[in-house]
Each structure stands twice: as C-alpha cells, then as structure tokens.
C-alpha cells in the first residue's frame, strides 16, 4: 500500500509539473501576441534576457563571447526559456496542493518580466503589458488544468443501464472511483484540456509571429526598394596582391554573411527607412539637425574600406572584419551643425550615439573631426546595410574599437563631455576612450594542425587601423623573429594579409606572430585581458609536424 501511494505521489507531481509547463507555454504565446501591440522588445523572454545582459558582470559577458561567439544570444534566450520552464513546473506541483498558490507563483514571475521590460532603454509603461497578459493567461490555464487534474473521474458504470448491483460494485477493484496508483487523477480529462490548451497556444503564437512579421514588412520593403546613389568619392579598386591567396587565410573583403556581429540586441531592430530620422543636437551645436534617409542620401557619399574590430576580441580571435563602406562624412555633418573640436575651442569632447534600442556609445569629437574617414554608413560591400549590421544607418570610425564608435541602428547624435556622461559600456567597467591596438593573427596552420614536414605557409592578417601595418614577423619555438611577406596595402584603415614560408621539421612546434605599425610601435608580447580597452599579446599556435 505504501509503495502504491509513493507511485501515486510521483505521478501526481509529474502531472502537476506538466500542467505548469503547458501553462507556461500558453503564457509565452499570449505574451508574444500581446507584444505585437507594443513592440517586439517588450516580450518577456527578450526583456528578461536584455535585463540580464545589462546586469551581467563584465567577466561573465567576456566568457560568454569567448565560449559561444555570435551564438551567445541564442544561448541566453534558451537559458531564459529553460528557467521559465523550471519555475512553471514548480508552480504546477505547488498548484496540486493549492491551486491559488501555484497561480500566485506564475503571477510573481510575470511581474519580474514586467519589471525587466520597464527597465529597458526606450521603455514605456506599455512595455509591461505583454508580461502581465502572459502571466495572467498562464495563471488561469494552470488553475484550470490542475482543477481538471484533481477532479474525481466519473464512476465506471457496471451493469446494463448504469444501475450497479451490490455484487457488481464490489467486483473489479479498478472499476470504482478510488484513488488507486494515480491518486484519483482524471487523466483523460487532463489530456483533453492539455490538447485544447496547446492548440490554442499554437494559434496565439503563430498569430503573434505573423503579425510581427507583418509589422516589419514595411521595413523589409523599404530596404528591398532602396537604391543607393553612386559615391561622389568612390574607393579605388582593391590592389592586386592584397589577398595572399593562401588557403585558410581570411579574404581581404569579408563577405557580409561572414562579418562578425557582437551587440546586445536579442531582437534585431527592423526600421522602416521611410520613417527613420536622425537628430543631431547638444553642447556646442548652433544649428540642430533632423535628417531623414532621403536627405542623408542627397549629400555627397564617400566609399572607403575600413576594418572593424570588437574590443571583446581575444588575441587571435575572430571578431575582426573588413568591408567596403558607403556613407556621409560625419565631420562634415558636425561642421554644418556648428560643432568645433576641442582643439579649436569646441565645448563638447564626446559624441554620444544612441540606437533605436537605447544603446549608447561615446566617441571622441576630436577623433571624428581629425580628418579620418569617420562615416555615417548606409552601405556595406555594394548594397544597403543588412538589418543585423545596422540598417538603415550606422557609424563607422576607423581606428576605434566598435564599442566606442560603431553604433548600429542610429537615431540620435548628442554632443556632450566625457565628464558629464558615461555611455553604456563605460558604466560597465570599459574604458571611455579605446583606440584599436596593433594586433596580428595566424589563420593557417590552425591550432593542433598536423602538416607534413617541408615547406609550410604560415599566414594570416594584421591590423592597426588608421596607423597601418609596416611589418609582420614570425618565430618558431621562441627562436629568432623572421620577417613575413606582406600583401599589398589598401590603406592604413584596413587589415593587411601576410605569409611566411616555413621549412617545417617533424615534431611539435609553437608558432608566434607580432606586427609593427607605421608609427614604429611593436605589438607588445605581454598578455592582458580584453577589459578595459582591448587585449594585448602575441598570437601563438601549436602544431605537430608529421614526417614527410
């Protein structure tokens, strides 16, 4: 009897947990549908994920980028959903004992989602709506499912018209309404209720997805129909020899689909180019500007090859890419607004760029106006910016890490000072000023490669944006540095390919690389972490050379 009771208890808990998970699923689908009326970023999973990103320690963020790369957002989203499922399951088990208590757990968790949504940049009071609607729906579903689950199943009929005889009632121990091993659970009724709930949830979820897609259809159409004017100042052709044409080495121009993406947006903003506006204002601005995309495109466009690098890039890491950008010179726009750099008496030393999702990046005004090709970019590799890379307009400033210069989905430029305002990443322990550090990377051979003895090309890329690469050297097993052959230089704002022919001998070897920029500064060998202003050190690769 005790064993039967234990089995019944376990089954009740399983069914209770299942009811909680089903209720959670229903709540998520309802919240996604409700988010259509607000904005996609207001959905509870996205809101909670964004709040976690904001509050995660820098070291943990850095670890996530190293471990998961550009899949870090997917991992975070799956983690939020997993936690939600666990909480929902626990609420279901609690609801078996007391339905109102289980529903209360769901409502508390929904309140957490609402608070997270309200804490996001650009949030309004309406941003709490999806979480609250989803939470109320989930609580109601849980209350209903556990009610069905614990209701006593109908008595099995024995005999002809349902009038059981005394002997009929006693016969067959499983025919009566007693608890048995299932503890009196109405499994059939519960199954029907679950099926109906899941079907309605699927309809709500599908409707939310379709309506969201419909809402962004204007943005998709505006990008598809956008025809960028030819540049007034086209970039010269990439010089012959810029690619060293060694298998495994990064292409000189990074394909759009392969260009790295590191940002905090769990939902990529999709902005209608026809309604987009940029506001330029702040300290030292004598003529504030508000521009639409058509007005921006009417200005002279400049085409320029620029390598971008993320400050989270470890030594030898993949977060660097080179593209041909098309845009308007940012310095010209600032001068038109009456802005002067600090060296000429300007009041502002920081240009704060704000994206449509509230991200802020701070760039030195002096750097933007020192003559380099700092752009408000509208095109990338011959076409409009992809949505994931900032359509319709983003900033690109050669020589600075992306977190202080490369604002995507741009909507505002505000002039201020570094003393008066800390941008998003500065408030999270990163440096306010971050010029790109001279770096080099071995692309081939790969770590743990096993080439055969003989002539082995050691090759890769090096970068020192706005200073240029003058020399790359390679050494083997801590020996003398050997100068590599450089690919043709496209300009000081792009990376430079290199190759060194190595007469490899059998055994294990360590290859190291270092670069020297055009100022004469040699890449330091001391390893430092990415925080606060970019990693340093020589990239090293260990290989095992097989006998010929």
Task: Give structural notes.
The chain has helices at 2-35, 44-55, 58-68, 72-97, 99-118, 129-150, 166-170, 187-215, 217-224, 293-297, 330-336, 365-368; strands spanning 277-282, 289-292, 302-309, 320-329, 350-355, 360-364, 375-380, 383-384, 394-396, 410-416, 439-444, 454-463, 469-476, 482-483, 485-486, 496-504, 507-517, 539-545. It has 548 residues and is of the alpha+beta class. The protein has a 5-stranded mixed beta sheet with strand order 2-1-10-5-6. Strands 3, 4, 7, 8 and 9 form a 5-stranded antiparallel beta sheet that branches. A hairpin with a 5-residue loop joins strand 13 and strand 14. The chain is globular. The model is unreliable at 156-180 (pLDDT under 50).
Share of helix, binned: 25-40%
User: Which structural category fits the helices and strands?
Assistant: alpha+beta
Distance between the termini: 74 Å
Question: Roughly what fraction of the amino acids lie in strands?
Answer: 15-25%
Gyration radius from CA atoms, angstroms: 31 Å
Q: Strand order of the main beta sheet, please?
A: 2-1-10-5-6
Order of helical and strand elements: HHHHHHHHHEEHEEHEEHEEEEEEEEEEEE
Q: Which stretches are poorly predicted, pLDDT < 50 over at least 5 residues?
A: 156-180
Overall average pLDDT: 91
DSSP summary: helix tally: 12
- Largest sheet data: 5 strands, mixed
In total, the number of strands is 18
Q: What does this entry show, briefly?
A:
The chain has helices spanning 2-35, 44-55, 58-68, 72-97, 99-118, 129-150, 166-170, 187-215, 217-224, 293-297, 330-336, 365-368, and strands at residues 277-282, 289-292, 302-309, 320-329, 350-355, 360-364, 375-380, 383-384, 394-396, 410-416, 439-444, 454-463, 469-476, 482-483, 485-486, 496-504, 507-517, 539-545. It is of the alpha+beta class. The chain is globular.
């Amino acid at each position: 009897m005790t064993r039967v009771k234990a089995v019944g208890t376990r089954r009740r808990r399983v069914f209770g947990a299942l009811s909680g998970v089903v209720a959670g699923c229903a709540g998520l689908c309802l919240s996604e549908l409700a988010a259509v009326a607000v904005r996609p970023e207001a959905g509870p999973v996205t809101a909670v994920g964004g709040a976690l990103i904001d509050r995660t320690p820098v070291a943990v963020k850095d670890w996530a980028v190293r471990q998961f790369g550009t899949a870090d957002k997917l991992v975070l989203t799956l983690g939020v959903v997993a936690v939600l499922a666990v909480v929902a399951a626990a609420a279901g088990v609690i609801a078996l004992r007391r339905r109102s208590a289980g529903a209360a757990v769901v409502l508390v968790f929904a309140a957490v989602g609402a608070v997270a949504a309200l804490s996001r940049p650009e949030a309004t009071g309406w941003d709490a709506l999806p979480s609250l609607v989803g939470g109320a729906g989930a609580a109601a579903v849980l209350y209903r499912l556990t009610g069905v689950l614990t209701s006593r199943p109908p008595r099995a009929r024995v005999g002809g018209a349902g009038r059981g005889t005394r002997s009929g009632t006693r016969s067959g121990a499983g025919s009566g309404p007693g608890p048995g091993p299932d503890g009196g659970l109405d499994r059939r009724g519960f199954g029907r209720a679950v099926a109906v709930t899941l079907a309605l949830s699927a309809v709500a979820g599908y409707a939310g997805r379709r309506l969201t897609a419909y809402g962004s259809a204007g943005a998709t159409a505006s990008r598809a129909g956008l025809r960028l004017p030819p540049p007034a100042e086209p970039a010269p052709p990439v010089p012959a020899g810029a690619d060293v044409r060694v298998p495994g080495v990064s292409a000189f121009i990074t394909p759009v689909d392969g260009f790295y993406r590191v940002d905090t947006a769990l939902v990529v903003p999709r902005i209608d180019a026809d309604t987009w506006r940029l506001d330029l204002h702040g300290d030292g601005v004598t003529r504030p500007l508000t521009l639409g995309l058509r007005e921006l495109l009417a200005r002279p466009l400049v085409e320029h090859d620029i390598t971008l690098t993320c400050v989270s890039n470890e030594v030898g890491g993949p977060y660097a890419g080179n593209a041909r950008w098309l845009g308007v010179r940012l310095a010209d726009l600032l001068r038109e607004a009456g802005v002067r750099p600090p060296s000429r008496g300007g009041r502002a030393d920081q240009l704060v760029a704000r994206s449509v999702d509230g991200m802020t990046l701070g760039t030195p005004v002096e750097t933007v106006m020192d003559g380099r090709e700092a752009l408000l970019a509208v095109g990338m590799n011959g076409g409009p910016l992809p949505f994931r890379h900032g359509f319709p307009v983003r900033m690109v400033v050669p020589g600075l890490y992306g977190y202080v210069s490369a604002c995507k989905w741009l909507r505002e430029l505000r002039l201020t000072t570094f003393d008066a305002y800390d941008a998003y990443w500065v408030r999270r322990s990163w440096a306010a000023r971050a010029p790109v550090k001279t770096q080099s990377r071995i692309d081939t051979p790969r770590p743990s490669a096993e080439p055969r003895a003989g002539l082995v090309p050691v090759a890769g890329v090096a970068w020192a944006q706005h200073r240029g690469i003058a020399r790359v050297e390679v050494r083997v097993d801590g020996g003398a540095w050997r100068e590599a052959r450089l690919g043709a230089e496209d300009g000081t704002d792009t990376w430079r390919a290199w190759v060194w022919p190595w007469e490899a001998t059998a055994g294990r070897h360590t290859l190291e690389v270092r670069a020297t920029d055009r100022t004469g500064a040699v890449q330091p060998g001391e390893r430092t972490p990415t925080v606060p202003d970019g990693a340093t050190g020589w990239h090293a690769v260990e290989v095992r050379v097989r006998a010929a």
